[in-house]
User: What shape does this take?
Amino acid sequence: PGRREPSHTAPRRPFRRKTRTHAMSANKRLNEGHQPLYGKMIPFGDPAWYRGHNSPYYRETHHAWRAKIRAFCESEIMPYCREWDDEKKLPDDLLRKCWEAQILPASCGGKWPTEYVGKGPGDFDAFHELIMIDELSRCGSGGVMWGIMGGLAIGLPPVLLFGSKFLKDKVAKGCLTGEKRICLCITEPTAGSDVANLKCSAVKSPCGKYYTVNGEKKWITNGLMSDYFTVAARTGGPGHEGISMILVEKTMPGVKCRQMDCTGVWASGTTYITFEDVKVPVENLIGKEGHGFRYIMYNFNHERWMLIAQATRFARVCLEESVKHALRRKTFGKKLIEHPVIRFKIAEMARQVEATQAQLEALTYQMMTMSKEEQNLKLGGDTAMLKVQATKVYEYCARESQQVLGGISYVKGGLGEKVERLGREVRAYAVPGGSEEIMLDLSVRQALK
Assistant: This one.
């Protein structure tokens, strides 16, 4: 009697009986966001929601879309990636097939372009686009991915968002249906991330009827096979305020293209373009003079998000190929997967891939629920940081999968084909769209605003 409880003991809370309403509410949330099993169930071979994990992001329309894109990829793309890589181009009829599968209109971000291609998947949103990129990227070829959508996804949006009705009617439908191709021309031999200091010029004629374009563009995805070039050119003084965007057509005299011999992404047609006294009608100006820099910045988040989605699945492909090889290959009398050091490598890859996937889905949700203006205000730093995360994880998984697969990862074709190719294409994702150093600096500067 008279003893006190020690001061560190928490006071007892009165017992509260759970009300019927509370219990019903809790039960109602059980299985919320339930997702059916899908795929071959190879450990870590697909995102968590394929494996039956509940998710608030995906609905029945997403399930049907996923099945459709997977079937297309496995029948029309996967068997031919090596062939297309060796030929350094995609077949002429592939884009038509991609149009029929609704892939091309799903590549440009934002709303479905109903005005030009009719109705799309029910309730089309950013997660439909994410599923499309993720499923197609199972082919394990950056060259094929960029060959299909690399030019379209970054070259057409400036026209759709800022171009005149004349320009939209001129190019949109043809590009979205695969009859025509378009690319974005920003990078130059002396200007990559430093967009504000590009040198390509567009001088308006005294009569005011056309621009004369002179300059060079380098590392242009799809340039070799494009009909249209969305070109950033200097129409004014130095700095970003002197930049405009102009639609140049390949048939215009003075346009010269040659394919660049790069380490990877061969099927995408990486191109060096020269403009020599190319006369372009003033009607081909996209938006307003001097607004080109802001048009470029407006679509950068979406471009980087696409690279993130592809890099994340490529990392997962390396992980999946490692698991498959470890389950079939035997060394020292037992399967590779039975060696602790191999399980360690797989776990290290898996923890990074799954974390990156979760952040990608969270970012996609923000894109889906924000206006384009709000996205550009709030998501630039997050997108830049995740771009570094995704490409670093891809690089790590490419290396570790090569260690697991051994010699077959160094040979084109065969069981190690995807890992060999993806190992060559790492830098094509780490540098374009913003190098690691530029992206990390941008993410901090955005956070300090």
Remarks:
- The chain has 17 helices and ten strands.
- Residues 292-328 form the longest helix (37 residues).
